[in-house]
């Protein structure tokens, strides 16, 4: 295993220092380190962060390898500064058995670019009718701890209660896609002024807020852990704030696109801006940003959702919802939050690693810590070119936008997956 000496780098925004990586861990830190056998990396002007962790990634394999594979998604993640991602269950076949989650887990290990932690389905086939093999997935080699029907809401309150009770046995988490389906039937975008003007069926904010309110009450009742996926409305923030004040075991995430883009993007009728939950209003964005800074929202999660060309480049009504996110998430965080490095490290690495129980991830670089880290050039600016992305899909809403920050290097247990801004293998 090659040793690396990163010189003159700022660790999470602190004064510049040197980092010596050896045998998969940070062996030493301090100014003026020497290591003749180590490969030197000039960290001048760079910031070292704990490797980013994504709680919400769609890798599409098995079943939709035309849109993404575990390997291509892992490569995109590494280039985005990630060392671990949690892969959602809406594959084909659905990841609702021990066999499928183990397949995804093994594919991640074979790729070797990030740690891929599968998320298991809550219900069989995501159908919302009966519980999937939660215990078998938890006991599998993949050791699943988070379960979600993401893309579908667990709408039946009795079934949701049973799921929350079941996962208590191994301190698991139910991650809910909060959408009351009877309120969003035929919805094409956020319900509001823009949808009215465009004549598109609206997705009301209350459809999200009602499910979150119900589920925090259920989680409080049974004393279980609830995670709320892709929070998108100001009203949802208030429900979460009240729940956390009462001590409910609830965590929540927000996506980069819900922190930056509004429903006005739908005026172009460009399907790249169609997403679920939909882009909301400037008022919602302000509430989400404030909640992220406050800690009411714990995590920035990408909801990286690659789609094949035929599923996205079509009429708005027929386009599948979803956007790419892994390779641009840190840039969006910098654009939205500025260089608040400790806050970025907390929301994009430490907190998601804690929630997912990923040992060795989400820990700031320090002696004895596994060398899972990323180096960022905060002064760089880059134009997002879809053709240059590592994902097999091209549905980025940031095409040709100029964004701040560039990932210079990513290390997974001391081995570089990215150097000089390029994938190592």
List the helices and strands and how they pair.
Blueprint: E1 4-11, E2 16-22, E3 25-30, E4 39-42, E5 47-50, E6 52-57, H1 70-79, E7 82-87, H2 98-111, E8 115-118, H3 134-139, E9 146-147, H4 157-167, E10 173-176, E11 189-190, H5 193-198, E12 202-203, H6 205-222, E13 225-228, H7 234-245, E14 250-254, H8 256-260, H9 282-294, E15 299-300, H10 309-312, H11 329-337, H12 341-356, E16 373-383, E17 402-412, E18 415-419, E19 422-423
Helix pairs in contact: 1-2, 4-6, 6-7, 7-9
Give a quick set of tags describing it:
5-stranded parallel beta sheet; single chain; 12 helices; 29% helix; TIM Barrel; alpha/beta; 19 strands; 425 residues; globular; Urease, subunit C, domain 1; 9-stranded mixed beta sheet
Q: What would you note in describing this structure?
A:
The chain has 425 residues and is α/β, with parallel strands linked by helices. It folds into 2 domains: 4-47 and 367-423, Roll (Urease, subunit C, domain 1), CATH 2.30.40.10; 51-356, Metal-dependent hydrolases (TIM Barrel). Helices cover 29% and strands 22% of the residues. The chain has 12 helices and 19 strands. The chain has helices at 70-79, 98-111, 134-139, 157-167, 193-198, 205-222, 234-245, 256-260, 282-294, 309-312, 329-337, 341-356, and strands at 4-11, 16-22, 25-30, 39-42, 47-50, 52-57, 82-87, 115-118, 146-147, 173-176, 189-190, 202-203, 225-228, 250-254, 299-300, 373-383, 402-412, 415-419, 422-423. Strands 1, 2, 3, 4, 5, 16, 17, 18 and 19 form a 9-stranded mixed β-sheet that branches. Helix 7 links the parallel strand 13 and strand 14. It is globular and about 65 Å long. The mean pLDDT is 97.
